[in-house]
From TrEMBL:
<keyword id="KW-0436">Ligase</keyword>
<dbReference type="GO" id="GO:0005829">
    <property type="term" value="C:cytosol"/>
</dbReference>
<keyword id="KW-0030">Aminoacyl-tRNA synthetase</keyword>
<dbReference type="GO" id="GO:0005524">
    <property type="term" value="F:ATP binding"/>
</dbReference>
<protein>
    <recommendedName>
        <fullName>Methionine--tRNA ligase, cytoplasmic</fullName>
        <ecNumber>6.1.1.10</ecNumber>
    </recommendedName>
</protein>
<dbReference type="InterPro" id="IPR014729">
    <property type="entry name" value="Rossmann-like_a/b/a_fold"/>
</dbReference>
<keyword id="KW-0067">ATP-binding</keyword>
<dbReference type="InterPro" id="IPR015413">
    <property type="entry name" value="Methionyl/Leucyl_tRNA_Synth"/>
</dbReference>
<keyword id="KW-0547">Nucleotide-binding</keyword>
<comment type="similarity">
    <text>Belongs to the class-I aminoacyl-tRNA synthetase family.</text>
</comment>
<dbReference type="InterPro" id="IPR023458">
    <property type="entry name" value="Met-tRNA_ligase_1"/>
</dbReference>
<dbReference type="GO" id="GO:0017101">
    <property type="term" value="C:aminoacyl-tRNA synthetase multienzyme complex"/>
</dbReference>
<dbReference type="GO" id="GO:0006431">
    <property type="term" value="P:methionyl-tRNA aminoacylation"/>
</dbReference>
<dbReference type="InterPro" id="IPR029038">
    <property type="entry name" value="MetRS_Zn"/>
</dbReference>
<feature type="domain" description="Methionyl/Leucyl tRNA synthetase">
    <location>
        <begin position="1"/>
        <end position="218"/>
    </location>
</feature>
<keyword id="KW-0963">Cytoplasm</keyword>
<dbReference type="GO" id="GO:0004825">
    <property type="term" value="F:methionine-tRNA ligase activity"/>
</dbReference>
């Protein structure tokens, strides 16, 4: 609103991030489909912004066909340029539900402080990050069955291949750009420790489909 009052050339873009485990978990809790959950909370978000008299030039959603085309186009470009690689990771799988379990679908005992209701990604008592396979006495949140550890193939963004070019770009950007001290510190620590390949696929149903044979059951 300030920028518009100043008659600056302003484009205000926002939207709702509707994919991921949080949506699936909420859908199970409320007895709705993931799409119904997204439609419900998108409307709530829009009403709140209107109440605050906040208006956007564009308010989007990640579940639209346009968003899917853009995401899959980026994926195909990365694949064509050799920036994606395959690897196998150990994951918890619920044989009763016949699915690999994302972090939010697992609960168990924290391996660090023994808190009995730790999530598959973090313990809310001691605050430590957790790899789901490290949980003691893990349980599937959907059926309360005991999951087993099994391998799953995934695609990774090959960040080490980009490290040298990224460092060169960062040096120029730091010299000419307006980086905060905190942003510089975090970025330097990542570069200093060496970039690691980052997994970009998930064993979920709700998400942008992976447009590659052998991975079409993932998002």
């Amino acid at each position: 609103r300030y920028c518009r009052l100043r008659n600056w050339n302003t484009l205000y873009v926002c939207g709702t991030d509707e994919y991921g485990t949080a949506t699936e978990t909420k859908a199970v809790e409320e007895g709705l489909t993931p799409q119904e959950i997204c439609d419900k909370y998108n409307a709530i978000h829009a009403d709140i912004y209107r109440w605050f008299n906040i208006s956007f030039d564009f308010f989007g959603r990640t579940t639209t066909p346009c968003q899917t085309r853009i995401a899959q186009d980026i994926f195909q470009r990365l694949l064509a340029r050799g920036f994606l690689l395959e690897d196998t990771v150990e994951q918890l799988r619920c044989e009763d539900c016949q699915r690999f379990l994302a972090d939010r679908f697992v609960e168990g005992t924290c391996p660090f402080c023994s808190y009995e209701e730790a999530r598959g990604d973090q313990c809310d008592k001691c605050g430590k990050l957790i790899n789901a396979v490290e949980l003691k006495k893990p349980q599937c949140k959907l059926c309360r069955g005991v999951p087993v550890v099994k391998p799953s193939r995934h695609l990774f963004l090959d960040l080490p291949k980009l490290e040298e070019r990224l460092e060169s770009w960062l040096e120029k950007s730091w010299a000419t750009g307006d980086w905060t001290a905190n942003a510089r510190y975090i970025t330097r620590s990542w570069i200093r420790d060496g970039l690691k390949a980052r997994c970009i696929t998930r064993d979920l149903k709700w998400g942008t489909p992976v447009p590659l044979d052998g991975f079409r059951d993932k998002v």
